[in-house]
Amino acid sequence: GPRARARGRGADEAVPRHDSSYGTFAGEFYDLRYLSEEGYPFPTAPPVDPFAKIKVEDCGKTKGCFRYGKPGCNAETCDYFLSYRMIGADVEFELSADTDGWVAVGFSSDKKMGGDDVMACVHDDNGRVRIQHFYNVGQWAKEIQRNPARDEEGVFENNRVTCRFKRPVNVPRDETIVDLHLSWYYLFAWGPAIQGSITRHDIDSPPASERVVSIYKYEDIFMPSAAYQTFSSPFCLLLIVALTFYLLMGTP
């Protein structure tokens, strides 16, 4: 009777109907695929922190710096840039160079390539910048598996390889790793890489520090690149003086 029909209508209304539309199917698939059993979205990986910009205003104050390139250049415009500072029992290095391959610093006893402890930041084919340890055997850089670097980070932007890492001041005695509490000449180099492997540096005679460097002394040292050295050498200055004197005095 009517009562039975009412019960029938109530039962029908209590049972949810399946909509066969694509939108409903996609919504159900999303619920099953992206929601946990409790109905909350699965957690996603946190965003990667961006590479903190190198602060050149700290050079000579709270860290030592070397700049090679155009006068007035900074970490983003120098051909080569390096900074160092003490942090506890570690030394933090920052390197940057105008290259799409690698940038490195070597610790040498004689300003010449050979028998040097080298730290390099290498841009690989996957877009990553890896910190690697090398030892110069003559003119050849041999990769060393024992890598003293820690807290490594690097980036390739605007056709520049830039990196930051720490390494301990004191290390167990090893021919390929020097103690940084001692003073060393610093060798500066950069160049191309092929499939993540370093190749010969960009210039035939890479720059080096004029004297040994102490990690306990912070200086801001600028070295002009070849394009800006024409009139800075003593020989060129002497030549200019001689020509000026000749023009002023005239010929006998």
TrEMBL record:
Key words, A-Z: Membrane, Transmembrane, Transmembrane helix
A Pfam match: DOMON
InterPro entries found in the cross-reference section: DOMON_domain (IPR005018), FRRS1L (IPR042789)
Gene Ontology terms, MF aspect: dynein intermediate chain binding; protein-containing complex binding
DOMON domain span: 78-193
Annotated TM spans: 231-249
GO biological process assignments: regulation of AMPA glutamate receptor clustering; regulation of glutamate receptor signaling pathway; regulation of postsynaptic membrane neurotransmitter receptor levels; regulation of synaptic transmission, glutamatergic
Annotated Gene Ontology cellular component terms: endoplasmic reticulum membrane; postsynapse
Highest taxon of the lineage: Eukaryota
Xref: PANTHER family: DOMON DOMAIN-CONTAINING PROTEIN FRRS1L
Record-given protein name: Ferric chelate reductase 1 like
